[in-house]
Please model this.
Amino acid sequence: MGTLIVVDCEAPFGVGAPSVGDMTEFGAVDFNALREGRTETFHRTDCSEETFRRFREWLAPRMPVVFVSDNPAYDFQWINFYFWRYFGENPFGHSGRRIADFYAGLVGDFRSTQKWKRLRRTKHDHHPVHDALDTRCTSNRRCNHAARPESRHCRWNDRRK
Model:
């Protein structure tokens, strides 16, 4: 399947796409490493070629990689644009995975796209690494719930009743 990389991007208000302006920062978290007890993150506050060269180097030992986000329609466009702009390719390929879709599949309701956010344990503060870490932790709790539905450690399980 590849290494799951949870990504979060930030841009100024009113800059909704790379064609309008530049993002201000982004962060990435290696989901697989966190599941193994290691924290491996990447964070930069610009979208320069050097930043994306370093990001590509950070991704290299994790290949193949899968792009994961709470909003891939937004986040993927930035990462895809800069990788293609600077290197003529994107290590993530042409698609990403949405956290809410995974949640909807677990609960068996395709329209359940917002309830997963209540599993967050930290405030969504728009710092890309914090948001990516919280998205990853939320996803991990969903994974644990799916593996052990009887678990009393899962906050989501408590809210179902």
